[in-house]
Amino acid sequence: MSSSASLAAPTQRSEQRQAAARVVGLTKVYGCGDTEVVALDHVDLDLAAGEFTAIMGPSGSGKSTLMHCAAGLDSASAGEVHIGDVDITRLKDKALTALRRDRVGFIFQAFNLIPTLTAEENILLPLSIAGRKPDQAWFDLVVETVGLRDRLGHRPSELSGGQQQRVACARALVSRPEIIFADEPTGNLDSASGTEVLAFLRRSVDEFGQTIVMVTHDPVAASHTDRVVFLADGRVVDEMRAPTAERVLEAMLGFERRTAGA
Amino acid sequence: MLQASWKSLLGRKLRLLMSAFAIILGVSFVAGSLIFTDTIGKAFDGITDTVGDVVVRPATTSGMFDGTGSSRTVPGDLVERLAGTTGAARADGNVSDETTFVVSKAGKLVGGQGAPGLGLNHNEAPTSSGAQPLTLTAGHWPERSGEVVLDVATAERAGYRVGDTVALVTSGAQPKVSATLVGTAEFASGGLVGASITVFDTKTAQALYFGGKDEYTTVTVTAKDGVSADELASAVQQALPAGFESITGAKLAEEQKTSINEALSFISTFLLIFAGIALFVGSFLIINTFSILVAQRSRELAMLRALGAGRGQVTRSVLFEAFVVGLVGSTLGLALGFGLAVGIRALFATLGLDLSESALVFQPSTAIAAYAVGMAVTMVAAYLPARRAGKMPPVAAMRDDVAMPEGTMRWRVAMGAVLVAAGITGVAVGGFAGVDNAAWFVGLGVFALVLGVAMTSPVAGRPVIAATGVVYRRLFGTVGHMAEQNAVRNPRRTAATASALMIGLTLVSMMSVFGASAKASIDKAIDASFAADFVVSNAIGQPFSAAVTDEVAQVPGVEAVSPLRIVDMQFNGGRTGGAAVDPQSFQRVVPIDLMDGSLAGLSGRAIAVDEKFAAEHDVAVGSKVELTVAGQEGSYTVAAVYHDLKAISLPILLGLETANAAGVPQQDSMAFVLTAPGSDRAAVEAGLETVVADLPTVTVKDQAAFAEEQRGPIDQMLALIYALLGLAVVIAVLGIVNTLALSVIERTREIGLLRAVGLSRRQLRTMLRLESVAIALLGAVLGVGLGLVGGWALQRALAGDGIDVLAIPAGQLAPFVALAGIVGVLAALWPGRRAARLDVLRAITTD
Fold first, then answer.
1. Smallest Cα–Cα separation from B143: which of B89, B217, B204?
2. Beta strand segments in B703-841, E
3. DSSP label at A244?
4. Which residue has the higher pLDDT, B189 or B268?
5. B770 at the A interface (CB within 8 A)?
6. Domains in chain A: boundaries
7. Contact between chains at B761 and A125 (C-beta distance less than 8 A)
8. B578-616: string of b/e by CB count within 10 Å (b at 16+)?
9. Rounded distance between C-alpha atoms, residue B285 and residue B739, angstroms
10. Could you give the ipTM of this predicted complex?
11. Would an 8 Å CB–CB cutoff place B486 in contact with chain A?
């Protein structure tokens, strides 16, 4: 009873907070007829502002599709996706592009940076595309936080994988987006660099109040978040607050067993 | 392995086609040129295949299409004597003239742009095959003065029907002739290649061309059955008086064909040079395309190596692709060549070589040449990328980011630098050292420079790109910055793409500088050496009747008229330019700067020579010179030496009287008119216009208009060269499209990322457009720069030949650069559209 109370408390609090993004009845179907695959099946999900959320699930569970649709990179077959107060499923390419530029940040698993630009130019890319001036104090703070001060003039090819991911994180943060989507941001990193990146993401949530949604299949990565949403067969099957690596792993194994049994 | 290459080809049909484009265009130019050349050959095969068994003519006269031939003739009584030769069935006298032109109903000259206007007498002499060279298609043959027959095509072009009154202009004693069209005839061999035929009865022809004397140009002797042409020719030779010769029709036809082919061989050389340029430009694009294709497939190639394929096998697999590309490109190019031949035919028709009646001739050798050239160029160009593919380390298959093993550019830049140095030397020697064959030095120098700059341009082009980048960043911010960065990230690729455009523009701007200089030089020369108020001349470069000059002298207000009569002369076995003039009046209209002697003595066997001629052949006043004038050899004495004439190159001057004695036709090339002091210029001009009113070929011009007329051929030549070089530029543009399109494919993930972080489609298109413009501008700046240097050197090299003024046509060169910018914008259209259509998510997740 007490455990359920402790679970309920933050839920109530997050409901009081405004949702940074909201997914309602999101369905994504690939192909048609015999080859039809339902990747997302009426998913409902609220992503609270100022929270670090992990989306987990076995391969093929639809977790990447969910993130792509939520971020406006992929179109939904049915349902709604709200970022702030905008239903992005109704937006045309031009407005969607502007939304991605101004209100959303991205961190991909690999190939996050433009090879011809320096680290600093990469960080400022979304702002300079928009023709906006960076807030110098904020830029300095972000660069300081990711510890890249002495690497700003380097090209991506001169940076280590971990450094490249930190540049990507800085780029995602610098425009102060309403929400950052991270797609397996530590997938290509060794564990030390991965931990560094995760710690940095954690800090940006705690210190700057940034909202982050991260897709991962690594229970350790998920343990850095506030909330883990589990997906299987295109549906939200469970969620967990204040996760630890052990509990996440256990839950994952549980789903695998259930899937295998079924 | 072969199967793997084959599959890879089929999987990339679009890229295959794009890389084949350069080959298609180059080969089509080669094939088109060859088809056109063969067509010319065939057309004249026909026209010369119309000669009789044996022809008698004055000894050593030149061919039938020689406008400045002799006026020496065969006397009429010889015809009857020849008819009685053993073995002869009949003998017919031929009267022929090449400057008889038809004036159309609308008052315009028909033909006359290089092709002769044949004036013939009618006779029944059969050709060697027994047929008649001309077959009547309507009406009857002319029987008396005032009747003519025209060839069908000419009658049609001029709008005349049987019964109409035809206006003709000739350079004979009677410049204007009008006669009733009594019939039309068809030439046995079909096409006349733009020439026209006017047939008179023999009496009228003799009246027009020989002042009514019973004389002939040649005599055709026809053999009896069973007598061979050779037998008859030697029998006729026995019967001939000195100064005449007999020749079999077959030999004469051969002679004529050879002289025509010689005269026209420059056309095929000219066309093939441009085909070569197109292929040269194309080879850059093939190198580029294969380099990119190999780079994109590097992981796949490394995989093949990891699976156990040898270096040679990988190299061969790429070469096999090149082989197929070459094969496909050559085949399509050959087909396109037909279309191009039609275009070239139309182009030359506007210049007076009208082959529209001749069917295009396709010989197997054309196909062989097209395939050989197409395959060889493709394979050679693909060799370097193929070798690099073989060097791919197998471990690259496992790596995430695969970079092609790229050798340092040091070797390449060093080679390029050597070539640039050699080129500069060549240009400097040719342009400024005053050596013989200076133009060749300049040509080779420019070639070396172009190659050298192309090789060093990955490095040498950086300042240009950097300068563009500064402007881009200021105007387009990050998008401009990224465009600049993209343009320099593959320096070789950018350089090769720009080089293709550079080559075309180098030649275009070089020609443009040279042409402008030539025109400026003409203006200056005419300005300096033109004392006459008016010039009477023939718009089509044919001489006109001396009777016109006499009439001009009668116009009120004309103080003096001085004719210039271009005479065909031979010296030391080669042709030499020269003219007959009136020694007294000529100096008043064309200021001649005498070095020695005087023109007053220009009569009898005296000549004057210019400084250059005197120096080259080591003659001075008093020297004896052996000269062939109008086909007659003779010994002449040098009476004067003068400084080279600026306006026209005339190494030798004769007196009119001397020319008449040698049998030069009474036809003037130009007549210079001086007005009397105090006379009304406009009235004199009106009077002169009245004289030439009915002669559409003869015009009256003042100095400015005359200069304009002299500049005309240069403009025409430049237009032709621009049209042909246009092809090289088209190939270069396709090259930019190709490079950009392949780059877009290569950078798919990057484009996806940019789109994901908020780059709009428009910004993406702008980025590609700017990259394209940067490449095009690089090519344009290098090309125009090299062209300026080359044109300057060429002008200097030919300063001694009269091109002594340097003119830089900035008004023409600046648009070339601007045009290159537009070309860049256009070239980015398709790749830009493709890039903008990429699905963001799919792009970012591609391998």
1. B204
2. none
3. -
4. B268
5. no
6. 49-73+90-261
7. no
8. bbbbbbebbbebbebeeeebebeebeebbbbbbeebbee
9. 8
10. 0.83
11. yes
